[in-house]
Amino acid sequence: MSSIERIKQNADLAKQTIQELKNELNFLNNEYNNILARELREENARLLAAVEEAKAHLVKLEVKNGIPQIPVPNQTSRPITTSVESQPPKEESQPTQKPQKEAKPKKEKKPKEAPPAELPVDIGRLDLRIAKVEDVQRHPDADSLYVLKINCGEDKPRTVCSGLVKHVPIEELRNRVVMLLCNLKPVKMRGITSEAMVMCASSEQGVEVLIPPPGCSPGEPVHCEGYTRQPDPVMNPKKKIFETVAPDLHTDASLRACYKGVPLTVPEKGAIVAKSLANVPVK
Question: Which residue of 43, 98, 130, 174 has the smallest Cβ count within 10 Å?
Answer without folding.
Answer: 98
